[in-house]
Request: fold
Amino acid sequence: MAQIDAFFKLMNDEGASDLHMIAGQQPVLRVRGDIERVKFKTMDNESLKSMLYEICPEDKIKVFEETGDMDFGYEIPGLARYRCNFFEQKYGIGAVFREIPSDILSCDQLGLPKVIPKLASLPKGLVLVTGPTGSGKSTTLAAIIDEANRTRSDHILTIEDPIEFVHKSNKCIINHREVGTHTKSFTAALRGALREDPDIILVGELRDLETISLAMEASMTGHLVFGTLHTMNAMKTVDRVVEIFPANQQGQVRSTLADALKAVVSQALFKRIDIKGRVAALEILICTPAVRNLIREAKTYQIPSVMQTGKKYGMQTVDDAIMELLEKKKISAEDAYINCIEKQKFVKFLRKPPTDFTEI
Reply:
């Protein structure tokens, strides 16, 4: 048993999402969004490095010492998996660990809208799950892949950096590939995927032009492709995909994206005030013919209006989702105000002025 496993056990017991181990500081947990210091001695660089290197593969240590940054996955059987990031900082080594639960929750268990599990049954196309870091994108995608695994008879291929949720083959066969361990890059893995007979491809992160281009190509050649982006809402997601391409290609990209895109799910995570835990507010865009026309004609600013009128298709704006959580007294008015788009709708619920003075 590695020394650091005791901290992972504590992390699990406390319901923490992240563990921070920083040279020159005490260990820190993030519990339901808040930072909490662990009652433990301040760690010096050498002792912390020794503790961290104990769980790190040798080839990853080499990468870290050459670059100062490195990601990998670590698993404690029966407890959880962890997404690990090592980095160099002013006082020595630092590390952050994100817990990936061993048990994959279903869409129903997560309380996701009814349209979300239906995304698993799409025959082909591109589905994007977006939001800031730590907003639960991986958890939502894992629930969708689990739905496909239970209801389809297909080949699912995941490409991640590092592997997060591990699915056991059920009705589907599932292959997990980790960038840096099983493949050189997302783009190399996507190129290879087209020769590996997949029906569903999960791309952990659409980071650059080439990866996005290959993901769109795969979705246009009969595959169902799921991917993530760090964008805040559906409208900005469409714009981000288009704007990453050179200006002289953007017209063609809009046309291709209009045909390929099936749905965008953007989410934000909130601390619950009714019980311990967190809850996600989801914005959902389903690509109906009206939405496809807006994408082709570069009128993405009209997408929120289409979502307002497209509730029968399962669409909803993030403000509607936040308002529902607020009215059910699951989240605070202050959190709702900070994360909403149209601030005026939520001002009346505030008991005091907003903490973000730039929004006044």
About this structure: The first strand starts at residue 16 and ends at 22. The two ends are 52 Å apart (CA to CA). Residues 5-101 form a domain with the Beta-Lactamase fold (CATH 3.30.450.90).
